[in-house]
Amino acid sequence: MEVVPAWAPAVGFTLLPHAGGFLGSKITKKEIPVWYESLRKPSWCPPNWVFAPVWGTLYTSMGYGSYLVWKELGGFNEKSVVPLGLYAGQLALNWAWTPIFFGAHKMGWGLVTLLLTTGTATATTASWYNINKTAAYLMVPYLAWLTMASALNYRIWKDNRNKKQE
After folding, report:
1. Per-residue CA distances from 119 to 53, 86, 144 (Å)
2. What's phi and psi for 132, nearest 5 deg?
3. Are 123 and 83 in contact (CB under 8 A)?
4. Can you give the pTM of this predicted structure?
5. What's the whole-number mean pLDDT along residues 54-62?
6. pLDDT higher than threshold 80 for residue 42
Protein backbone atom coordinates (compact mmCIF):
# COMPACT_ATOMS: atom_id res chain seq x y z
CA MET A 1 0.00 0.00 0.00
CA GLU A 2 1.51 3.29 -1.09
CA VAL A 3 1.38 6.18 1.36
CA VAL A 4 1.33 8.92 -1.29
CA PRO A 5 -0.59 8.36 -4.54
CA ALA A 6 1.64 8.44 -7.63
CA TRP A 7 -0.13 11.55 -8.96
CA ALA A 8 0.30 13.60 -5.75
CA PRO A 9 3.83 14.94 -6.43
CA ALA A 10 2.80 16.12 -9.91
CA VAL A 11 -0.18 17.98 -8.46
CA GLY A 12 1.81 19.36 -5.53
CA PHE A 13 4.70 20.66 -7.64
CA THR A 14 2.27 22.12 -10.19
CA LEU A 15 0.21 23.95 -7.56
CA LEU A 16 3.09 25.16 -5.37
CA PRO A 17 3.90 28.34 -7.37
CA HIS A 18 0.25 29.37 -7.13
CA ALA A 19 0.57 29.71 -3.33
CA GLY A 20 2.69 32.85 -3.61
CA GLY A 21 0.53 34.15 -6.44
CA PHE A 22 -2.58 33.70 -4.33
CA LEU A 23 -1.04 35.50 -1.33
CA GLY A 24 0.29 38.28 -3.57
CA SER A 25 -3.13 38.77 -5.13
CA LYS A 26 -4.43 39.93 -1.73
CA ILE A 27 -2.00 42.88 -1.90
CA THR A 28 -2.54 43.52 -5.60
CA LYS A 29 -6.34 43.64 -5.38
CA LYS A 30 -6.10 46.29 -2.68
CA GLU A 31 -3.53 48.44 -4.50
CA ILE A 32 -4.74 48.35 -8.13
CA PRO A 33 -7.86 50.54 -7.79
CA VAL A 34 -6.13 53.52 -6.21
CA TRP A 35 -2.32 53.43 -6.24
CA TYR A 36 -1.60 51.46 -9.45
CA GLU A 37 -4.33 53.23 -11.41
CA SER A 38 -2.77 56.59 -10.46
CA LEU A 39 0.59 55.69 -12.05
CA ARG A 40 1.65 56.72 -15.53
CA LYS A 41 1.99 53.60 -17.69
CA PRO A 42 3.17 53.13 -21.28
CA SER A 43 0.64 52.58 -24.06
CA TRP A 44 1.80 48.96 -24.39
CA CYS A 45 0.96 48.10 -20.77
CA PRO A 46 -1.36 45.07 -20.80
CA PRO A 47 -4.86 45.62 -19.39
CA ASN A 48 -5.25 44.57 -15.75
CA TRP A 49 -7.48 41.60 -16.58
CA VAL A 50 -4.63 39.92 -18.51
CA PHE A 51 -2.33 39.45 -15.52
CA ALA A 52 -4.27 36.80 -13.56
CA PRO A 53 -4.72 34.30 -16.43
CA VAL A 54 -1.17 34.84 -17.65
CA TRP A 55 0.32 34.28 -14.19
CA GLY A 56 -1.93 31.28 -13.63
CA THR A 57 -0.64 29.72 -16.83
CA LEU A 58 3.00 30.58 -16.10
CA TYR A 59 2.83 29.26 -12.53
CA THR A 60 1.27 26.01 -13.76
CA SER A 61 3.94 25.59 -16.46
CA MET A 62 6.91 26.25 -14.18
CA GLY A 63 5.42 24.10 -11.42
CA TYR A 64 4.94 21.14 -13.74
CA GLY A 65 8.43 21.69 -15.14
CA SER A 66 9.86 21.48 -11.62
CA TYR A 67 8.01 18.20 -11.14
CA LEU A 68 9.55 16.80 -14.34
CA VAL A 69 13.04 17.72 -13.12
CA TRP A 70 12.38 16.30 -9.65
CA LYS A 71 11.06 13.06 -11.16
CA GLU A 72 13.90 12.75 -13.70
CA LEU A 73 16.52 13.17 -10.96
CA GLY A 74 14.86 10.70 -8.61
CA GLY A 75 13.51 13.18 -6.07
CA PHE A 76 15.35 15.44 -3.65
CA ASN A 77 19.01 14.41 -3.63
CA GLU A 78 22.50 15.69 -4.43
CA LYS A 79 21.76 15.78 -8.18
CA SER A 80 18.67 17.93 -7.69
CA VAL A 81 20.17 20.53 -5.34
CA VAL A 82 21.28 22.98 -8.03
CA PRO A 83 18.38 22.76 -10.51
CA LEU A 84 15.68 22.73 -7.83
CA GLY A 85 17.59 25.19 -5.64
CA LEU A 86 17.76 27.69 -8.51
CA TYR A 87 14.06 27.09 -9.11
CA ALA A 88 13.24 27.73 -5.43
CA GLY A 89 15.36 30.89 -5.49
CA GLN A 90 13.65 32.35 -8.54
CA LEU A 91 10.25 31.42 -7.12
CA ALA A 92 11.03 33.19 -3.83
CA LEU A 93 12.18 36.28 -5.76
CA ASN A 94 9.04 36.09 -7.90
CA TRP A 95 6.84 35.98 -4.80
CA ALA A 96 8.79 38.89 -3.22
CA TRP A 97 8.07 41.27 -6.11
CA THR A 98 4.39 41.89 -5.27
CA PRO A 99 4.92 43.04 -1.65
CA ILE A 100 7.85 45.19 -2.78
CA PHE A 101 6.19 46.82 -5.81
CA PHE A 102 2.51 46.87 -4.81
CA GLY A 103 2.73 46.63 -1.04
CA ALA A 104 5.64 49.01 -0.34
CA HIS A 105 5.27 51.04 -3.56
CA LYS A 106 9.02 50.61 -4.17
CA MET A 107 9.11 50.63 -7.96
CA GLY A 108 12.91 50.78 -8.21
CA TRP A 109 13.41 47.89 -5.79
CA GLY A 110 10.68 46.05 -7.66
CA LEU A 111 12.75 46.40 -10.82
CA VAL A 112 15.85 45.09 -9.04
CA THR A 113 13.82 42.13 -7.77
CA LEU A 114 12.48 41.43 -11.28
CA LEU A 115 15.94 41.55 -12.82
CA LEU A 116 17.22 39.12 -10.17
CA THR A 117 14.19 36.91 -10.81
CA THR A 118 14.86 36.95 -14.55
CA GLY A 119 18.52 36.05 -14.07
CA THR A 120 17.72 33.22 -11.67
CA ALA A 121 14.88 31.94 -13.87
CA THR A 122 17.28 31.94 -16.85
CA ALA A 123 19.84 29.96 -14.83
CA THR A 124 17.06 27.58 -13.77
CA THR A 125 16.02 27.03 -17.38
CA ALA A 126 19.62 26.43 -18.47
CA SER A 127 20.17 23.94 -15.64
CA TRP A 128 16.98 22.08 -16.57
CA TYR A 129 17.77 21.81 -20.28
CA ASN A 130 20.15 18.84 -20.00
CA ILE A 131 17.92 17.13 -17.42
CA ASN A 132 14.54 17.43 -19.12
CA LYS A 133 14.12 19.53 -22.25
CA THR A 134 10.34 19.71 -21.85
CA ALA A 135 10.80 21.25 -18.39
CA ALA A 136 13.17 23.85 -19.83
CA TYR A 137 10.79 24.65 -22.69
CA LEU A 138 7.97 25.13 -20.16
CA MET A 139 10.03 28.01 -18.71
CA VAL A 140 10.39 29.89 -22.01
CA PRO A 141 7.02 31.73 -21.88
CA TYR A 142 7.85 32.74 -18.29
CA LEU A 143 11.20 34.17 -19.41
CA ALA A 144 9.46 36.11 -22.17
CA TRP A 145 6.89 37.47 -19.71
CA LEU A 146 9.62 38.42 -17.21
CA THR A 147 11.35 40.36 -19.98
CA MET A 148 8.18 42.29 -20.75
CA ALA A 149 7.44 42.77 -17.02
CA SER A 150 10.95 44.12 -16.43
CA ALA A 151 10.58 46.62 -19.27
CA LEU A 152 7.15 47.63 -17.92
CA ASN A 153 8.44 47.98 -14.35
CA TYR A 154 11.33 50.11 -15.65
CA ARG A 155 9.00 52.43 -17.56
CA ILE A 156 6.62 52.77 -14.61
CA TRP A 157 9.54 53.52 -12.29
CA LYS A 158 11.10 56.00 -14.75
CA ASP A 159 7.81 57.76 -15.51
CA ASN A 160 6.72 57.99 -11.86
CA ARG A 161 10.01 58.59 -10.01
CA ASN A 162 9.04 62.09 -8.99
CA LYS A 163 5.63 61.01 -7.75
CA LYS A 164 5.24 61.40 -4.01
CA GLN A 165 5.47 58.04 -2.20
CA GLU A 166 2.05 57.13 -0.75
Report:
1. 23, 10, 12
2. -155, 105
3. no
4. 0.94
5. 98
6. yes
- Judged by phi (left if over 0) then psi (alpha if -120 to 50, else beta), residue 74 lies in left
Determine the pLDDT at residue 3: 86
CB 163 within 8 A of CB 39: yes
Q: Calculate the CA 46 to chain-centre distance.
A: 17
Phi-psi region of 105 (alpha: psi -120 to 50; beta: other; left: phi over 0): left
Q: Which one, of 146, 125, 1, 3, lies nearest residue 65 by Cα? A: 125
Contacts of 62 (CB under 8 A, 6+ apart): 17, 87, 91, 138, 139, 142
Helix, strand or coil for residue 103? Answer: helix
List the alpha helices (DSSP H) in the chain.
Answer: 8-31, 37-38, 48-72, 81-98, 107-129, 133-160
Q: Residue 39 in 3-state DSSP?
A: coil
- The contacts of residue 144 (CB under 8 Å, 6+ apart) are none
Distance CA 56, CA 32 (A): 18
Q: How confident is the model at residue 164 (pLDDT cuts 50, 70, 90)?
A: low
